[in-house]
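Supplementary Note 3. Input sequence used for the single-chain structure prediction.
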Amino acid sequence: MASTSTSPPEAAPSTFSPSQPPSNSSSSSSSSSSSPSSQPQTPPHSQQQPPRPIPRFLENDPARTGYDPQVKWWINLFKIYTHQITPEGVEHYREDRYKANEARDCARCEADRDYLFAYSPVIRFLRDKVAALNGELDKNNVVCRRCPARVAEDGTVVRQSGGFSPEHGILICANEMRDRGHLEDTLAHEMVHAWDHLRWKVDWQGGKGLRHAACTEIRASMLSGECRWVRESWTRGNWTLTQQFQDCVRKRAIQSVMARPTCKDDVQATKVVNEVWDSCFSDKRPFEEIYR
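The predicted structure, written as discrete structure tokens, is reproduced below.
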């Protein structure tokens, strides 16, 4: 999932239900306690970190980027191919094309979402496990929207492929979905977050520390299929044969923790992921094994 997969969706219209998870007797059969080792308690004397300053995002300036939104799109595309537009301008061009194709992208996303709820083994399994905890995920609270990307002053592009909010449900960023397989990985990632929330009431905002966030990000990247070898090698170009899966899970968990406003930097994100790694990486609930 993209690096900010746990960012709360802004446009999801309905409520991700239940008020309280059921007792241990009705939870996952692989669970034996209500407070698993994968959700470590926050030290009582830990202090909340002040939030990072909000980065300044760049607006398009044709004189600087070479991209002029007033001309035909195919002219700008030709200028991209001939290197007349800067990398920043390419991102602004991409965003304008996403806006123009928003209705098409959302319609395709919704059709793929409905197909996965009907036929995907992993999505149907996770939906049943969420339902066992008195939750409900369907087309009413799994929504497809266009998610704008922004270019920071340092050239970093801030984008996401989805998000989960306990109050709203799951957001799928329709414009970022390459195909149905990508949507399946993204939806599975967010559904693991939903299951974790119902099972353990995760501290999403990091007000008591970032260990909960780190743990659920490790589990979501591990169980969703987004770090399987084929995805890593063919889509992302990472051909490492040893520890590739573990490296992918760790890297994506660190990226997601860094997106939390209470995380200072990559050093803190790496530290907290390493602190919970052993217990969270070994916890495969609600699955029995890693199947994807």
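The first strand starts at residue 142 and ends at 145. The radius of gyration is 20 Å.
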